[in-house]
Specification:
Elements lengths: L2 H17 L6 E5 L4 H15 L3 E5 L2 H9 L5 E4 L5 H7 L1 E15 L13 H9 L8 H4 L13 E5 L4 H13 L1 H6 L12 E3 L1 H11 L3 E6 H6 L3 E2 L2 E2 L5 E2 L3 H8 L28 E9 L3 H17 L1 H6 L7 H15 L2
Parallel strand pairs: 1-2, 1-3, 5-6, 5-7
Antiparallel strand pairs: 3-11, 4-7, 4-8, 4-11, 9-10
Helix pairs in contact: 1-2, 12-14
Length: 338
């Protein structure tokens, strides 16, 4: 049995728990980006402790709204909230895991990792300016590939999404015209393409539609055997999306407890020629007036920090470095549970 088949069985078991949840369960909702790892952690946590953790992947926007309204015990967001926004909503924030966004494509005769997309090509594709795969700007860096004269179908998220926030932030910084005309956010006015709900929705469309291109979290690429393009690092070097290139980016992060771990750019466009440009950290949001519930949530993530690294890596995520975990644990003690 492959590790991904085992994961699916684990996920099925977790979903069955939701049907029989009770008052002692921990309930979270939000970003679909970390959904695979949170549900896997929940499965093993239940086996270890008997405590159920139910997590619904509804998008970062939904997660922020639900924890703000105190509907769930914790929220998940791929958009880091500014300290002022946290104060306004009455929330705490800390990182849980590092992952990455990848640009995935459906081209029959182009293998995984073969396609190189320059910043300009990526910009013009998602702007709708480049309409066919054999466009000169794409061919420029792919002279060894036989790119078809096939229309490009852009697939993007349809709901409020932290993955979209990070992806459009990246586009805004590599592409001045995108920054000027579209900007970045959990929801933007896409100039072209078809909307899909969640990382899984984008995944499904890209798999089904020849010529499609979209953006998803790396775990979805791995689990669904999608093809992902090489992108340019901050230094302009073409880089493949690998655990190594994610770690190169993650080690550049400057985490500060006093700012609730807020970094304006998340981990996007990190320094280093071999750093993956779309590396991000996903965050956990807690209400600042629910100490009892927060203790239960923290107990779960503390267990995950100590026991969940292997599972996270298997699914294509990068565990937080020990130094960052130590800062998060100190934040729990000195801020969240003070």
């Amino acid at each position: 049995m492959s590790r991904y088949v085992r994961f699916i069985f684990a996920l099925f078991a977790v979903l069955m728990f939701i049907q029989t949840s009770n008052a002692s369960s921990i309930n979270g909702a939000g970003a679909t980006f970390p959904y695979p790892v949170y549900t896997a952690w929940a499965y093993y946590y239940y086996k270890s402790t008997g405590v159920k953790v139910n997590y619904q992947g509804i998008g970062s926007g939904g997660g922020i709204r639900q924890i703000t309204k105190r509907i769930v015990d914790f929220g998940g967001s791929d958009e880091m909230l500014k300290p002022a926004e946290l104060k306004k909503r009455g929330l705490y924030q800390f990182p849980a895991i590092v992952g990455s966004i990848v640009v995935v494509y459906n081209l029959k005769n182009v293998k995984d990792g073969q396609l190189k997309l320059s910043n300009r090509a990526a910009c013009d594709i998602f702007m709708g300016k480049i309409k066919y795969w054999d466009n000169p700007e794409i061919k420029k860096y792919n002279t060894n590939l036989k790119l078809p004269h096939k229309i490009i179908i852009v697939i993007h998220r349809s709901e409020g999404s932290g993955t979209t926030w990070n992806f459009t932030y990246w586009l805004s910084h590599i592409c001045p015209i995108w920054g000027k005309k579209i900007g970045y956010g959990k929801v933007v006015e896409w100039p072209s393409g078809k909307g899909a709900k969640g990382n899984q929705g984008v995944t499904n469309y890209v798999k089904q539609i020849p010529g499609a291109i979209g953006y998803v979290e790396y775990a979805y690429k791995i689990q669904n055997s999608l093809k992902a393009a090489q992108l340019q690092s901050k230094d302009g070097i073409f880089v493949k999306p690998t655990i190594k290139s994610f770690k190169e980016a993650a080690k550049e992060a400057k985490w500060k407890e006093k700012d609730s771990f807020y970094i304006p750019s998340n981990l996007l466009l990190a320094s280093g020629k071999n750093s993956w440009p779309l590396t991000v950290s996903t965050m956990i949001l807690l209400a600042n007036n629910r100490t009892g519930i927060n203790k239960k949530v923290i107990k779960f993530f503390n267990w995950a920090f100590k026991n969940g690294d292997k599972t996270a890596q298997m699914l294509g995520y990068v565990p937080l470095p020990k130094s960052v975990k130590d800062k998060v644990m100190d934040y729990w003690k000195s801020v969240v549970l003070k």
